[in-house]
Amino acid sequence: MDSPENPSGQVVGMEQDATPTLVDVDTAVLLLGAGVTAITHPLLYVKLLIQSSQSAAFGRKFIKTKMEAMEKEIRNAPLAFKLSVWNNFGFLNMDGKEDLHVGHEPLPPTVGTTMFGRRVLYLPGFFSYAQHIVKVDGRRGLFRGLSPRIVSSTISTVVRSKVKQQVEVFSKRDDLQISLRKVVRETSHEMIIQCLSRVATHPFHVMSVRCMAQFVGRELKYGGIFSCIVKIFKEEGLAGFYVGLVPHVVGEVLFLWCCNLLAHFINTYAVDENFSQASAVRSYTKFVMGIAVSVLTYPFMLVADLMAVNNCGLAAGLPPHSPIFKSWLHCWNHLSHKGYLFRGSSFFFRRVPVTSQPCIED
After folding, report:
1. What is the DSSP string of 114-131?
2. Which own/partner contact pairs does 39-46 have at CB distance under 8 Å and 24+ positions apart?
3. Residue 172: pLDDT band with limits 50, 70, 90
């Protein structure tokens, strides 16, 4: 009678030993996610400030002494270059006199040349912007708005793992033999997971964006997580936690479908089975497609970030830094008209966009 009990006792012991292991794995994943979020936060912080600083008329707040140092070099430049400077910045009128305007871009541009010898204005990149933040707020200033992002990352990891477990249970019931149908089914599951995760974490994204955007106007309106929750709910209600949700979800859904379908078609029809490195090429296809598609869906992320700040009482979301948008489509149309749909997509070599030139008769 003892022998039947021993195996069962061993099984129970194994289950008890296995449970802490799973908990340890989940804890390790959460800690890893929090660490990655903290390391990459300065990059997203600078990107947000670049987005906010140039959503309207940008680059107009310059230090007078630095602009006087650039004045001679600009005046000796070709007429087309002068017109581009005048149109985009407004500090040089047609009489050649300085005319400073209100704006946010904290550092002046520098005159440079492209590889073809064309003279252009370069705006400050990531390192220049980060140094400016450290100079103003110290090193801790680079991590403004980090706590809501860590909470968002933790919630996203938990929601994804729970939903993925439920989705896998249903997906095992139907083994699809057709490759395309399998890709569609898997992408649909990923879309459900992504949408639920975004709905759960978007309020913390709004808090983080607003905390970071306070750098523009030097406000102290949003502090810790609980004070942010109280402030947003009191002023905007529940809807305030989900401003900018629609473009964010649309962008992520488009990213998933385009990336997965393009990777499938390339692996199926473009990669030859006789090629010796076919398996290696297929393993990198989805990664490469992800980079390419993320560039195309970036405007949705930009609009979502701008809508999170727009008309919330911060200087970054009010004129003259930004118009007041009625909806995310209004914001999209405004950015498209101004040519700013890809603002902040690059951290380096940020050139001044060329706008339409006025007709000047000599």
Report:
1. -TTS-EEEEE--HHHHHH
2. 41/142, 41/143, 41/145, 41/146, 41/149, 42/130, 42/142, 42/143, 43/126, 43/347, 44/149, 44/212, 45/133, 45/142, 45/143, 45/144, 45/145, 45/212, 46/126, 46/129, 46/130, 46/133, 46/347
3. low
41 CA to centre of own chain: 11
| pLDDT value of residue 347 | 79
pLDDT reported for residue 357 = 38
Q: How far is the first Cα of the chain from the last one, in angstroms, to the nearest whole number?
A: 109
What one-character-per-residue DSSP string does 317-344 give?
GSTTTSPPPSSHHHHHHHHHHHT-TTTT
With DSSP H G I counted as helix, E B as strand and the rest as coil, what are the percentages for the chain, rounded to 5?
A: 70, 5, 30
Give me 232's structure tokens.
């947003």
Q: How many helices (H) and strands (E) does the chain have?
A: 10, 3
| C-alpha distance from residue 291 to each of 189, 259, 285, 343, 351 (Å) | 21, 9, 10, 17, 22
Name the β-bridge partners of 120.
112
| pLDDT for 11 beyond 80 | no
Cis-peptide, bond into residue 320, ω within 30° of zero = yes
Tens of pLDDT, residues 211-251? 999 998 889 899 889 999 999 999 999 999 999 999 999 99
Structure tokens at 80: 């087309």
CA distance 221 to 228: 8
Which structure tokens are listed for 278?
Answer: 């076919």
Q: Six-digit token pair at 132?
A: 């400016």
Question: Between the CA atoms of 186, 188, 190 and 195, what dihedral angle is there, to the nearest 10 degrees?
Answer: -170
* Residue 120 binned pLDDT confidence (cut-offs 50, 70, 90): confident
Beta-bridge mates of residue 112: 120
What pLDDT score was predicted for residue 272?
67
Q: Whole-angstrom Cα distance, residue 105 to residue 111?
A: 16
Sequence-ordered strand ranges (E) for 72-167: 110-113, 119-123
